[in-house]
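User: Quick sanity check before I run a bigger batch. Here is a single chain. Can you write out its predicted 3D structure?
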Amino acid sequence: MEISWVLGGLLAVMLAGLLFSPLTLRVSTREQICRLAWKGFGYVAVVPDDKELIGIRYRIFFFEKTIFPLKMKSEKKEARPKKKRRGRFGLKKGRRTAGRMLNVLGSFKIRRFVLDLDTGYPVANAICYPLFSRMRAPGRELTVNWIGRRELDLVVVNRPIRMLIAWLK
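Assistant: Done. Predicted structure follows.
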């Protein structure tokens, strides 16, 4: 009886850890990073590679591995027969799902947004310059340059509990 309480408590703590630990998405063209990290559990990152075009590196707890999805395989798999779809996608169900997805997207917080842009056309740069200077805010830095540099640094954070609450609203 006491063991079941201990195991139940441990399960509750692990579930709380999963729900309250932050998910962080980071995209940076300066450092060539595209990474989704779940703090304390692992991450998935798209990394550039010299031999292959891209690689996907993932880490779950202490296990880390890199795979190359664009690597050509010598074996060809047989094509499976396609299954016929039953029923139709209802309009009301689609609206409800779209509304839920918008709620989930609204639960994300943008921690950092840095955009350094050169359009390659001086007139367009001159038009963007006053717009970008007006749109600056803490955590959001928008600049225009005339030297050909295009950089993006984006950090988006959310917690699974906030996504779950937004989905259930």
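The two ends are 37 Å apart (CA to CA).

User: Great, the batch can go ahead then.
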